[in-house]
Amino acid sequence: MKSITLVVICVLMMCSCKNKSQEDTKIPVKVENIEYVSFGKKIIADDAIASTSMASHYKTMNVGDSINSKMKAKVKDVCQAKGCWMQLDLEDGNDVMVKFKDYGFFVPKDIAGKTVIVNGKAFIEEVSVKEQRHYAEDAGKSAEYIETITEPKRTYSFEADGVLIIQ
Q: What is this structure's pTM?
């Protein structure tokens, strides 16, 4: 019995003297705390797809098709009358026209160039000449430019129920 106790003590002593060089090295990681201003329905930023990914979804859609989505994109233009719509850059030469569900909320008029996350329904629609001219007026375009709008246009559209603006 003495010999077993002696062996156990020796093993414990050897284990306690083990070199601790295999200890995990911890590297501090700086996590950015991004602040958002929310409009409409409360949404979270998680799972938002990039505008380039959304552009590829739009290319496969037809007029009348729709998908529920959340995307992150840069604001290209905003309604200067009251913030009732905005255009987002899809980074492939196309834009997406964003309107707000049931005109339940508006966004600030000075967010052009900011990054936003929109949640809602993406779809393809054909916009009439009259509606295109209305949007051009809201955007403050010249009368000459507005007169050049003469044909309906197939557009990428989005009905947002919530918007986060990155501050």
A: 0.72
